[in-house]
Amino acid sequence: MGMRLLPSVFSLAMLWAVGGCKPKAAQTADRSEILIGSTLPLTGSEARIGGFFKEGYELAFDEIAKQGGLDVGGKKLPVKLMLNDDTSNQATAVNLADKLINSDKVDFLLGTYSTALVEAQSTVAEQNKVPYVNGGGAASEIYKRGYKYIFGALSPVELLGTTLMDWIDEQQKAGALPRPAKIALLWENTAHGKDFRKGISDFAAKNAGGYEIVVDESFELNGKDFSALLGKVKAAGVDLFLADAHLPDYITLHRQYVDARLCHKVVSYGARGSEKSAIEALGIENVSYVLSGVWWSAQLADTLPLAKKFVEAFKAKYAGRTPEWFQALGYEAARALFTAITQAGSLDREAVRAKLAVLKMESLLPGGTLEFPADKGGEVQNLFVVQQNLPDGKAPIIFPKSVAKAVGVAPNPRCAQ
Amino acid sequence: MDRLLDMALSAVLLAGLYATMAYGLGLIYGVLRVVNLAHGGVIMGGAYLGWYLHDRLGIDPYLSIPIVLVASFIVGVVMYQGLVRRLPRGPSGGPASLLLLFGVWLVLRNIAYLVFTGDDRTIRTAYSSSSVEIASSHVSVNRLVVLGLAVVIAVTLHLLLRRTQTGRAIRAVAQNADSCTLVGIDVNRIYTLTFGIGSALAGVAGVLLATLFSFSPNSGSSELLKSFVVVVLGGLGSVFGVAVAALIVATAEVFAILVLPAYLTTAVGFILLVLVLVLRPGGLFGTRVLS
After folding, report:
1. Do B194 and B28 meet the contact criterion of CB atoms below 8 Å apart?
2. What is the pLDDT of residues A4-25, one digit of tens each?
3. B125 CB near a chain A CB, below 8 Å?
4. Hey, what domains does chain A have and what are their CATH numbers?
5. Chain A residues in contact with B6 (beta carbon < 8 A)
6. For residue B273, what is the domain's CATH number?
7. Which of A19, A100, A370, B65 has its CA 20 to 30 A from that of B170?
8. Contact list, B215 vs chain A (CB under 8 Å)
């Protein structure tokens, strides 16, 4: 019996050896298209933002299609996006990634949106050694696991805190804010919030004598009552009110902040503040002069050529709508993957991963370049842009100066009213 | 001292909110012995109906309460007649009703996703940011209204159960449904009515919550949990017990910040729940009969 099996085993071994020795370029030459798999939360709690990322992905794929495909080793290959709905659910995102890799046989993966989903899904990519480029996972914890196949186009939230503090520090040095400035630091009890806290507290520690964090509290998501927390802030007599919250908590927290007639020289809710829905919910009179830090703004089109090109292409495709950072990051993640594939000149996953690891390309992101530094686990480190809500409903970029559209106002004029 | 006064005021206002959310759940359990897991879904539905009436038809959220009340009542009646009524009574029906009503909640949530998408919504009126000064503290007008309505609902429910023929029938059925059948009370009608009233109260809670917070189809779970804590603490089936339990939970949560980090304050209610279940399983004011 054992002897009868030998020829079959030998044949299989030979087949495997022939396949294994097949040159990588020949594999690419045999291919008629590139398959890129992705999941996005198109339904469920993150459906709105998932839809935005889909628009960014589709625009990037449309552009490649218009160019006749992607140049891989001198041959133009069409690129196909296999997009599934992960329903905003971690388990579904993981299962679908596994299906895309092992059943649909995609070449590479583009990531989903939200820290929780990216964190779970990227493990599947890592286990299968498939390059995974995402624009939807910002928490630095995702990139501290020693993974080699994940690349993130979204800067860590820690840098959001740092960028905000950079602007505040300028105001302090100009005499617009007191020294030392007392800070109330409120953060949601998530990886996002912890990163924000780290950015602010590290900055304050480095600038000892300039800042004093007197309230440092976290809160649970979807809170209903922040009155006790705000009472603590009120009692501490702080100058700067710096919070990190998702949209529902921003609305609830700021409503109660306004009800309590609180006002501070600087008010920020991290990445929140300039959203149309939040302004409608809170009233422009109540959110004027709130600072927000975002990964990208359409206002960058005036200073970055690629951002301008993206905004024009987006408006042309989507009935004149102005893109937000979600679409821009989806688009940029796809573009980074395309660039690495072209540079690798092959569909070999290892070759593309190696190119992603050393990639340095012109970008529409603040700073104008994109790279995935290995010492940061493959997460980009571009600065944020700081916007400030104005009473006329606009939210111009006020920092960094190189891309600023207006001069930021401090201290908060609302407190004088 | 000012801060303590601020905190006491906050606790009372928060209690109004918790009580409003919990009345419906308490009433349904008190009479039918069914834990209505669809309660969170009906709260979410009430919030969307209030939002729709305000956003599309310009009806003030407080003026829309009668419409939401009737609509939620009908939803409750349909839910009972179409689903809950078909479940076996007694201990064997317990797990079945939990699963069924949890399923109803998921259906309601997904309908909301289909119709309204996952976007966060809010109701903003001219007075959304208005506050009044009470003892040197600024208090939101909306929160005061919610507190007022919480008291009105408690008194109305009490009067309904104590002073009307229907209320007496409800209490009788809560005591012993089989005996009620013998004396000619239409038990099925009472169950239907109770489920309808409980759902109507959940719908009203939804529209009141929508005046204070943003909401999405995912809303309702934290409201259900908090309602559960309040109802168990107050004693399943006691209207005023619910109101007092809401005040206890709110006070504990608000004052906990003096000794605990803010993120742990929401856990205080659950700690109270465990303590009550261990030390006094019938609740602090528990009675089997609605009062």
Report:
1. yes
2. 544 554 444 444 444 444 334 3
3. no
4. 24-155+303-376 (3.40.50.2300), 158-294+385-416 (3.40.50.2300)
5. 227, 231, 234
6. 1.10.3470
7. B65
8. 248
CA distance B266 to chain A (A): 8
Give the residue from B10, B208, B227 with the most A CB atoms within 10 Å of its CB, the best one to mutate. Answer: B10
Supply the mean pLDDT for chain A: 91
Indicate the pLDDT class of residue B237, thresholds 50, 70 and 90.
low
- Residue range of the domain that includes B140: 2-117+130-279
- Chain A residues with CB under 8 Å of B254 CB are 225, 227-228
Binary contact (B14, A45; C-beta < 8 A): no
- Can you tell me the distance from the alpha carbon of A332 to that of A304, in angstroms, rounded to the nearest whole number? 14
> 0.95 exceeded by the pTM?
no
- Sign of the Cα pseudo-torsion (A174, A175, A181, A186, in order): negative
Report if residue B153 sits inside a domain.
yes
- Assigned domain for B270 exists: yes
Tokens of A221: 């998501």
Measure A415 CA to nearest chain B CA, in Å. Answer: 16
Domain total of chain B: 1
CB A263 within 8 A of CB A414: yes
CA distance A417 to chain B (A): 16
The pairing of strands A397-399 and B131-134 is unpaired
Q: Exposed, middle or buried, B221 (CB in 10 Å: 0-12/13-18/19+)?
A: middle
How many angstroms separate the Cα of A380 from the Cα of each of A323, A404, B37, B124?
Answer: 21, 21, 44, 39
- Per residue in B184-228, pLDDT (tens digit) is 999 999 999 999 999 999 999 999 999 998 899 989 988 999 999
Non-local (6+) Cβ contacts of A212 within 8 A are A180, A181, A182, A183, A204
d(CA A251, CA A269): 10
User: Per DSSP, what are the bridge partners of residue A397?
Assistant: A387
Is B122 contained in some domain? Answer: no
- For residue A61, what is the enclosing H or E element? helix A47-66
Interface probe with B: pick from A227, A230, A246, A252, most Cβ of B within 10 Å: A227
In a domain, B287, yes or no: no
Q: Do A255 and B140 touch (CB under 8 A)?
A: yes
Q: Which residues on chain B are in Cβ contact (under 8 Å) with A263?
A: none
Task: Provide ipTM, 2 decimals.
Answer: 0.82
**A248-278 confidence digits (pLDDT tens):** 899 999 999 998 899 999 999 999 988 888 8
Give yes or no for B253 touching A (CB within 8 A): yes
Give yes or no for B57 touching A (CB within 8 A): no
Q: For residues B260 and B263, give the distance between their C-alpha atoms in angstroms, rounded to a whole number.
A: 8
Strands A385-388 and A290-294, sheet pairing: antiparallel
